[in-house]
Automatic annotation (TrEMBL), chain A:
<feature type="transmembrane region" description="Helical">
    <location>
        <begin position="113"/>
        <end position="130"/>
    </location>
</feature>
<keyword id="KW-1003">Cell membrane</keyword>
<feature type="transmembrane region" description="Helical">
    <location>
        <begin position="87"/>
        <end position="107"/>
    </location>
</feature>
<feature type="transmembrane region" description="Helical">
    <location>
        <begin position="27"/>
        <end position="47"/>
    </location>
</feature>
<feature type="transmembrane region" description="Helical">
    <location>
        <begin position="176"/>
        <end position="204"/>
    </location>
</feature>
<keyword id="KW-0472">Membrane</keyword>
<feature type="transmembrane region" description="Helical">
    <location>
        <begin position="235"/>
        <end position="259"/>
    </location>
</feature>
UniProtKB/TrEMBL annotation, chain B:
<protein>
    <recommendedName>
        <fullName>Leucine-binding protein domain-containing protein</fullName>
    </recommendedName>
</protein>
<dbReference type="InterPro" id="IPR028082">
    <property type="entry name" value="Peripla_BP_I"/>
</dbReference>
<keyword id="KW-0029">Amino-acid transport</keyword>
<feature type="domain" description="Leucine-binding protein">
    <location>
        <begin position="33"/>
        <end position="377"/>
    </location>
</feature>
<keyword id="KW-0813">Transport</keyword>
<keyword id="KW-0732">Signal</keyword>
<dbReference type="GO" id="GO:0006865">
    <property type="term" value="P:amino acid transport"/>
</dbReference>
UniProtKB/TrEMBL annotation, chain C:
<dbReference type="GO" id="GO:0006865">
    <property type="term" value="P:amino acid transport"/>
</dbReference>
<protein>
    <submittedName>
        <fullName>Branched-chain amino acid ABC transporter permease</fullName>
    </submittedName>
</protein>
<feature type="transmembrane region" description="Helical">
    <location>
        <begin position="224"/>
        <end position="251"/>
    </location>
</feature>
<keyword id="KW-0472">Membrane</keyword>
<feature type="transmembrane region" description="Helical">
    <location>
        <begin position="140"/>
        <end position="157"/>
    </location>
</feature>
<dbReference type="InterPro" id="IPR052157">
    <property type="entry name" value="BCAA_transport_permease"/>
</dbReference>
<dbReference type="Pfam" id="PF02653">
    <property type="entry name" value="BPD_transp_2"/>
</dbReference>
């Protein structure tokens, strides 16, 4: 997808009845283009710098970014508060690792199978949980499911290796001569995951399905009056988002060479939710900005993780109370106002 | 979220590293500085093992540097440590190991005494050309296999320890029929495989083995299974927190044995309830620091307190896990005349016997053959005996 | 065999009582404020530490228990005034904010209390024999205390003026305000009350089990399960569900497998949500609190 068309989409979205000034429109377009350029530069940096350290950090950030993007589809666009993303991430890792090591399947076959398994499980869990509006049911049930999955992984010793985890000694098979056994190859794999999830979310966002999800988020009753099958839409979003988490999990296994039940811990999901809120829930760039701040900054500033988590906690609270739209949400709103003729920076409260 | 939070202790480590680095820089006579990697759980539930172990390692390198380093091929060599925190979690351990391996010049890595993070990090080390010196139980399963050639475990295997521990504790406690209660983990299964036959060989009946969920706090229901079975002893593991809870809850529930054999940690859980139980025997895989009178140990204790500024605690004896091995490694470097030919260094280490604070020797496969101490609490009296290596 | 069943049942009631003490706080706050407070487990943990510091300082268990409740009530009051009152009835906002509070409290606690396991001396030691059965004395005391606390809590809601105002708010916030209930004040009191119960639960936990900064997730998860099982907002429902869960765990661990202990609760929860989506005791929908 070209940068230009995406920018155009974003602008169209923000379009309003008041005709914008040509000049301002261009500047806004430029900001979006710069955002994409920054993203491309960041993505290329670890490869170009050819440093093992940057490759490793980049791999982890790309994986977390992909997770945040896929969770945003469900939380941000569909407005459904599920706390099971980490569980599906872990499910994907375990399922693919077992399919490869025990069943002897090639990695590239194990990946879609693991996604299929995750999708089926998500459908079984999601159907009863999503029947009710309000979302607390979904939050609680997915929370319980996640913990149960972790317990099963920790206790089904014979299959999962128990609390000690599972060693992963394989690499994905080369594709078109491109090998994944080196640090740069694994980074490319993680970056590919990020791009794939971004592409999927972008496609969904622009589709009838995506607009339906946003309608459900805004008002379920109204959405059902508009002829949207609310339950089916919500379920589809949950299944899709969970399957994406599983997909990212399948590459996590060979990257980390090791998986343990801790991977399914609910704290992973909580951190992701924090990332989304920080960056801007329901925006396209929010998950990326949030990931970069939460996982990237401390890596370079060398902040002790203890402070990072305390600061993140304070940030989450402040953001929810003061700027519920998050960083990307505020930027988007500012730009839109600017395009309509308001000044770019002003302390006036935006409605 | 159980992340780096043991700030004061971590700060102590950082301070130790700093003082040590300062000492290195003042000694400009060194021709070469060799960097050594260290991965340990400095925070989280396993830090009780790994923190003293890392302090002992740092202390050994500090002592070598203070003496001006070692001489390899006529060149003075001093050491510098790069330390990473595994936070008691497997995934963080892999991350920490990755960070160590990013330094191409680091060829030797020390650390990790618990199998969860240990196996995770060791998997990565087995793929890399580094000499890995660790302490965790499941490392035994990697030794002598492909990928395990450059690995050394500095603690005796359970198979070796049990040979002396089982007869000794059965004799001291005078037990005839015991139950085994362990967390539901891989390690526990290998423990049962090793100890149960030896117990039976020593004339002890083992009618019941139970595994519990590792995060259990309420042991009442599972302990009920041991009630009224005519048991006179319990075999427990694998860490102090769990064992303390079990000991306490046996004294509360009643109808349960008052004698314990403990595989895994210190004597603290037994000593805490010494008025309510009859006997408690534990393994001291290095040296008894609290109740023994070995002069070498006394000297080490003084040096440890001076180096870390900390008092001796029930877990301090883990500080000896890598301590002697550091000197063995230094000696091996001098012998082979290289600081980065890890294969030759490993080979030299495996063919020497070292009389340090512990008496250390390694097998061809890298398994420790060291003497251990066995701690005993019997009717309120505490003592320890030394069990020879073979 | 029969004796064993009774013993296991009592073990289950004891541990279930602890779960129930945690759950009534979560349930009350959810029923009145519409906030699912994930940080409730952290209040339990802090309550346990307050008790620990009081007991080790030599003030004894009873003062420790009282101050754990008082300190948590105050902390709850502060949190409600500073944060939660701005997002009343916003399910997602409340949930997210409480996740943020978890991060702050847990990491600060780990830094200042160290992750070491702590214990304090319970008022009763050892075991007692009753009719040929063996019980832990302290556990029986805890069970008795739980019954007293929960009954007092229930009577307060049923009989006192304030309790009636709280229940009125649970049924209809606007209606309650119209008939003269000081909605803002009462909401703050509800939060303080729920937090005090968390403090009590923490002190009782600490008298039986080791305390760590990371102990919160266990009680919290149990509390959630019970809140749902009890019918999202029903205090008596949560209490009964608590005892049921304790019994299920004890019997599961005793007669099935102890290595799947926490799993029994989740299975119970998922089954209940599928079969009785309004909770086991939430069928009427009238008597909310």
């Amino acid at each position: 997808m070209s940068v230009k068309s995406e920018t155009a989409v974003m602008i169209n979205e923000a379009a309003s009845e008041t005709a914008p000034g040509e000049n301002r429109n261009r500047i806004v377009q430029l900001v979006f283009a710069l955002g994409w350029l920054a993203f491309a530069v960041l993505l290329a940096t670890p490869i170009l710098a050819d440093s093992r350290y940057l490759l490793h950090v980049g791999t982890m950030i790309a994986l977390h970014g992909a997770l945040a993007v896929s969770l945003n589809l469900l939380l941000g666009y569909a407005g459904q508060f599920a706390i099971s993303h980490g569980a599906f991430y872990g499910l994907g890792a375990y399922a693919s690792a077992l399919l490869v090591t025990s069943a002897g399947l090639p990695f590239w076959l194990a990946m879609p199978l693991a996604m299929l398994i995750a999708a089926i499980v998500a459908a079984i869990i999601g159907y009863p949980a999503l029947r009710y509006t309000g979302g607390v049911h979904l939050a609680l049930l997915t929370f319980a499911f996640g913990e149960l999955a972790r317990l099963i992984a920790a206790n089904w010793d014979g299959l999962t290796g128990g609390p000690m985890g599972l060693r992963v000694l394989y690499f994905p098979e080369p594709v078109l001569g491109f090998a994944f056994s080196k640090a740069s190859g694994l980074y490319a794999l993680a970056a590919a995951m990020l791009l794939v999830t971004m592409a999927i979310v972008l496609l969904v966002k622009r589709s009838r399905f995506g607009r339906g999800l946003v309608a459900i988020r805004e008002d379920e009753v109204l959405a059902s009056f508009l002829g949207i099958n609310v339950l089916r839409y919500k379920l589809a979003a949950y299944v899709l988002s969970s399957a994406m988490a599983a997909m990212i999990g399948t590459v996590y296994a060979p990257i980390m060479t090791f998986i343990s039940p801790e991977l399914l811990n609910v704290h992973e999901t909580i951190s992701l939710i924090g990332v989304l809120i920080l960056g801007g829930i329901g925006t396209f760039s929010g998950p990326l900005i949030g990931t970069l701040i939460f996982y990237g900054l401390p890596e370079f500033l060398r902040i002790a993780s203890f402070y990072r988590l305390v600061i993140l906690g304070v940030l989450i609270i402040l953001v929810v109370l003061l700027v519920p739209k998050g960083i990307a949400g505020v930027i988007r709103q500012r730009l839109e106002m600017y395009r309509r003729g308001y000044p770019l920076f002003s302390w006036r409260k935006l409605s | 979220m159980k992340t780096g939070a043991w700030t004061n202790k971590a700060a102590a480590i950082a301070a130790a590293t700093l003082t040590y680095a300062a000492a290195t820089t003042t000694m400009a006579i060194a021709d070469q500085t060799v960097r050594i990697g260290m991965v340990n759980s400095l925070t989280g539930p396993h830090s009780g093992f790994d923190l003293p172990a890392s302090e002992g390692t740092l202390m050994a390198f500090h002592e070598i540097n203070k003496k001006g380093g070692i001489t390899v091929n006529g060149e003075k060599v001093t050491f510098e440590i790069v330390s990473e925190d595994a936070q008691s979690k497997p995934d963080v351990a892999v991350n920490a190991a990755q960070k160590i391996l990013q330094n191409d010049d680091i060829r030797i890595v020390y650390g990790i005494m618990t199998s969860g993070p240990g196996m995770a990090a060791a998997t990565l080390f087995s793929r890399s050309e580094v000499l890995y010196i660790g302490g965790f139980t499941l490392l035994d399963t990697l030794l002598g296999k492909p990928g395990g050639e450059l690995m050394i475990r500095t603690l005796n295997s359970d198979a070796a320890v049990a040979q002396s521990f089982v007869p000794q504790s059965v004799k001291v406690l005078g037990v005839k029929k015991i139950g085994i209660i362990l967390p539901n983990e891989d390690v526990s299964r290998s423990i049962v495989e090793t100890y149960k036959p030896l117990l039976e060989k020593a004339g002890v009946e083992v009618p019941i083995v139970e595994y519990f969920q590792p995060s259990t706090t309420d042991f009442a229901p599972v302990l009920r299974k041991f009630q009224n079975q005519g048991l006179d002893g319990l075999f427990v593991g694998t860490n102090d927190a769990v064992v303390e809870a079990i000991v306490r809850q046996t004294t509360e529930l009643g109808g349960l044995p008052k004698k314990f054999m403990y595989r895994g940690g210190s004597g603290a859980p037994g000593l805490k309830y010494k008025d309510q139980i009859e006997g408690f025997v534990w393994q001291i895989l290095t040296r008894d620091l609290e109740f023994g009178d070995d002069p070498k140990v006394q000297e080490w204790k003084k040096a440890y307190t001076a180096f870390t500024g900390k008092e001796i605690s029930p877990n301090t004896y883990w500080g000896l896990v890598y301590y002697d091995t550091v000197f063995m490694m230094a000696k091996a470097m001098e012998q082979v005349g290289s600081t980065d030919d890890v294969e030759a260094i490993a080979k030299a280490m495996k063919s020497m016997t070292y009389e340090g604070v512990r008496t250390m020797r390694f097998s061809e496969e890298g398994r420790a053959r060291s003497d251990i101490d066995i701690g005993t609490l019997l009717n309120g009296k505490i003592s320890s005996v030394r069990a020879s290596a073979e | 065999m029969f004796i064993d069943v009774i013993q296991t049942m009592t073990d289950g009631l004891m541990i279930g009582g602890l779960y129930a003490t945690v759950a009534v706080g979560i349930t009350l706050v959810f029923g009145i404020m519409g906030i699912l407070n994930f940080a409730h487990g952290q209040m339990v943990m802090l309550g346990a530490y307050v008790a620990f510091f009081f007991v080790t300082a030599g003030y004894g268990f009873w003062l420790g228990l009282a101050f754990a409740m008082l300190a948590m009530a105050l902390l709850g009051l502060v949190m409600e005034r500073a944060v939660f009152r701005f997002i009343l009835t916003d399910h997602m906002g409340g949930l997210t904010v409480s996740l943020g509070i978890i991060l702050i409290i847990e990491n600060l606690a780990a830094a200042y209390f160290t992750p070491d396991h702590r214990n304090f001396d319970p008022p009763l030691k050892g075991g007692v024999e009753l009719l040929g059965m063996q019980f832990s004395a302290q556990r029986l005391l805890v069970l008795a205390l739980v019954l007293v606390l929960v009954t007092a809590f229930y009577l307060f809601l049923q009989k006192t003026r304030l309790g009636k105002a709280i229940r009125a708010m649970g049924q209809n916030r606007t209606g309650a305000a119209l008939v003269g209930v000081q909605v803002g004040q009462v909401t703050a009191i509800v939060f303080a009350l729920g937090s005090a119960m968390a403090g009590a639960a923490g002190a009782l936990y600490g008298s039986l089990f080791a305390i760590t900064p990371y102990m919160a997730s266990g009680p919290l998860m149990k509390g959630f399960i019970l809140t749902v099982l009890g019918g999202l907002g029903s205090v008596p429902g949560a209490v009964i569900a608590g005892f049921l869960l304790g019994i299920a765990e004890s019997f599961g661990s005793r007669y099935l497998s102890a290595s799947f202990r926490d799993g029994y609760g989740f299975i119970l929860l998922i089954a209940a949500l599928l079969l009785f989506p309004r909770g086991l005791f939430g069928f009427s929908g009238k008597e909310k609190v």
